[in-house]
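Narrative of activities, Objective 1.

The group set out to show that a structural description can be obtained from nothing but a protein's sequence at a throughput compatible with the screening campaign. Below is one input-output pair from the validation batch, recorded exactly as produced.
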Amino acid sequence: MGQNTLPPDGGDDNILPVDLKAALEERYLAYALSTITQRALPDVRDGLKPVHRRIIHAMSEMGIRANSSFKKCARIVGDVIGKFHPHGDQSVYDALVRLAQDFSQRYPIVDGQGNFGNIDGDNAAAYRYTEARMTDVATLLLQGIDQDAVDFRLTYNEEDEEPVVLPGAFPNLLANGSSGIAVGMATSIPSHNVHELCDAALHLIRNPEVEVEKLVEFVQGPDLPTGGIIIDSRESIIEAYKTGRGGFRVRSKWQTEDLGRGGYQIVVTEIPYQVQKSRLIEKIAELLIARKLPLLEDIRDESAEDVRIVLVPKSRAVDPTILMESLFKLSELESRIPLNMNVLSMGRVPKVMGLKEVLVEWLAHRREVLQRRSRHRLAAIDRRLEILGGYLIAYLNLDEVIRIIREEDEPKVSLMETFSLTDVQAEAILNMRLRSLRKLEEFEIRTEFDTLSKEKAEIESLLASDEKQWQTIAWEIGEVRKKFAKATELGRRRTQFASAPEADVEAIQQAMIEKEPVTVVISEKGWIRALKGHIADTSGLQFKEGDALKVAFPAQTTDKVLIVTTGGKVYTLGADKLPGGRGHGEPLRIMVDMENDQDVLTAFVHDPHRKVIIASQAGNGFVVAETEMVANTRKGKQVMNVGMPDEAKLVVPVRGDHVAVVGENRKMLVFPLAQLPEMTRGKGVRLQRYKDGGISDLRCFAIADGLTWDDSAGRNFVRTKEELVEWLADRASAGRTVPKGFPRSGKFSG
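Output recorded for this entry:
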């Protein structure tokens, strides 16, 4: 330490007060912008993010072409991070690996040698073991980069230059797709078929006003590296390509294999994109152990190079379509591929684009590349023609040129003065070799001069004509289409299209639940449980202090249970979802959103083919189909509109053709069922008229069979049609006093 240890400003440590909010906003915005433009979003022109562009450029600088030998990935990664991309080596290597994986990239940009990972999700070998070189796709992306096709900028340390964007003769954005998460925005673009993209681009060149609907005739939908089947409607696909937002449902490809004697197994040969095969099989095995797949016996992975997942059904009677539908619902054998074409327009502005916009920007970029390459070539031709012009003058005056060179002190100046030459021409003449002075050379120079003059005229006419430029671009696109045609192994379409089979939704629901008998028990205070097996005698059931049995009935775990409350609401619960029989179960109010002032009226197993009459205390009612009572949410479904003090009182299955109603005033009325309306929701109509009191009981019956009831002693009574004549009247009448022998309880069953 020296004598003076104080800072030169006398101790002030240069602390500046900063408004925290302003500083955070400014810095977070800077971070967000750099993430959007320098990391997460691809450029619409070459479809690459900066890391991928730098990898390709570094390989190009190292001379690693598609036809050269493989080089260690460690060298490539080292060059990328040393010269262009100051980030972690692992992130760069991961990006390089992904460019080489044929199950990640539809058209791999890097040709890898060694272990580059697999569809099971295993990682690639370390970069000291693997080797790589370019593919033809990378060659196309770079085509013309040395001909001033694109702008270059300084690298992070300003020692080298890197391209801002690649020339991109290959429609890479849509062909290979892209995904990334930036700050406040994300992108997700699936891969497509190059043959189809080229067809769409050529059609767009011919008809710039074309609508997306027409382009989708060429680009039917994504073409994913791992195949699969897209089951979306044409309308939703068109809508997604129009707006640049949407998604595609992709299903695994499967078929049945006959094992003889009526037996079969299902073989899955293609799985959805970006689904890890090993994880998928683990998930299905877990579902199997958890007994969520009662139709499936076993799952085996018999994959080698190709995917082969074998699914063994429980029995030969199992419908393969229903088994697969249940698997599609529960596992990643069906997956949704999102579409969010959020890209950097012209390399700067993040924007969600539709299919047409993306193709228009790519074609505009190709046109700019063509113009820049043409101008670059034109400048080179002009330079060469200038030199050739000087050579011709030298040949025509060879002796004089030799004399000037031999005798003059400053031959260059003399040559320029004598023959009106430019500096470049004089320099070229002075640098000529003596062997070039032979007679033949003059002829060759004239030929080259004429050829270049002709080429210059062609390029000038190309630059002057929009039509010629588009013709050239169309020819280039045609060459790409030829190279990646559907007839080639790489170019053939992998992902197919189909509509989802119209399977019975109920049957699929059943297929996902193990079918077992249970007894559903609900207590007076609204506690619910499901005991295993069908229990005939419910007298031994235990309840909490002050609680008792409300209703108990047999069901299967595959059944839906409908619970009707006094407030006229219906809730639906799957019998398999009910708490087990140990203890007292759980309060219904935890499982559904039931109002505190309402109680359970009744509960029963849902029968989609049945109708019921629902009646209120005041004597209103209507017929409702059970399918209309099913509620898919916790909130339930309001079926009967009742207001306090009135409440729902009876739910009776519809049978026969007449209805018998008994009031609390012990008067009975019988009227035709046809007089009751069928509704999905409402207050209903008056069943019977009362001065005071309300309804006591209700029964549906066929009048030809007569009306039956049981008394408290268990005796059975029947009143025939003739005997019921005095009670027969229209709905909403007061009725007559109940017949002799009718139970004191006012109920039809004791």
